[in-house]
């Protein structure tokens, strides 16, 4: 198994959630697991655009990240290819549901062995990422 799926309902429109993804200052506040911060160096929010940043752990350790926005459909979907190790594709899909939106988060790793070895970290980290998105949505 090399795929991790998470889903969360938010009482916000797809456009409101998309706004929290496309604005770099907002994305930097909620991206990553609990306790992490981000320092964006390059953020080209368009198909083919680069995203280069450091994710900074609670202990101050900096984790270099490089990605490309593979696909962007405003208000509906963002696909990110993580282009440095570990290689993965993250697809965030926003589906209207009732009065709000269902956020579907699908992370697919190129290396199934890595994914299995890190499953105990990745599953809770992805849930924490959605928790942080919810907190960001509540700020507006």
For the record, give the distance between the C-alpha atoms at the N and C termini, rounded to a whole number: 37 Å
Overall shape: globular
**Class from secondary-structure proportions:** alpha+beta
Largest sheet: 7 strands, antiparallel
Q: Tally the beta strands.
A: 7
Tell me the β content: 35-45%
The helix/strand series, from N terminus to C terminus, equals EHHEEEEEEH
Quickly describe the structure.
This protein is 31% helix and 43% strand.
What's the layout of helices and strands?
Layout: E1 3-10, H1 14-22, H2 24-30, E2 37-43, E3 50-56, E4 62-73, E5 77-82, E6 88-97, E7 100-109, H3 112-139
Antiparallel strand pairs: 1-7, 2-3, 3-4, 4-5, 5-6, 6-7
Keywords:
3 helices; seven-stranded antiparallel sheet; 140 residues; alpha+beta; globular
Plain-language structure description:
This protein has 140 residues and is α+β, with helices and mostly antiparallel strands. The chain contains 3 helices and 7 strands; from the N terminus they run βααββββββα. A 7-stranded antiparallel β-sheet has the order 1-7-6-5-4-3-2, with helices on one face. Helix 2 (24-30) crosses helix 3. The protein is globular.
């Amino acid at each position: 198994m090399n795929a991790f799926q998470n889903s969360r309902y938010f009482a916000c429109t797809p456009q409101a959630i998309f706004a929290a993804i496309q604005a770099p200052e907002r994305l930097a506040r909620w991206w990553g697991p609990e306790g992490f911060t981000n320092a964006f160096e390059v953020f080209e929010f368009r198909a083919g655009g680069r995203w280069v940043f450091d994710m900074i752990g609670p202990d101050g350790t900096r984790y270099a990240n490089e990605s490309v926005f593979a696909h962007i459909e405003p208000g509906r979907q963002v696909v990110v290819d993580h282009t440095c190790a570990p290689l993965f594709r993250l697809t965030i899909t926003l589906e209207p549901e009732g009065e709000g939106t269902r956020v579907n988060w699908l992370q697919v790793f190129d290396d199934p062995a890595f994914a299995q070895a890190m499953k105990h970290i990745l599953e809770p980290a992805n849930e924490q990422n959605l928790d942080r998105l919810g907190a960001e949505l509540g700020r507006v």
